[in-house]
Fold:
Amino acid sequence: MPTINVQLFEGRTLEQKRAFVKAVTEAACLALECSGESVDIIIHEIRRENWATDGKLWSD
Structure:
């Protein structure tokens, strides 16, 4: 408990991902009153050509 799935455009640095998962873990622990060991975060990196908004690919 809990498992958090995040979808992001690819291209973030390892440092950005480390900072992100640390902040999300801390927020989850505070809100859900759980330990950090129980928080799993899965990052799905998506290419811009595989994501669209309002009928337009982000790669366009």
In short: The CA atoms of residues 49 and 59 lie 5 Å apart. The mean pLDDT is 97.
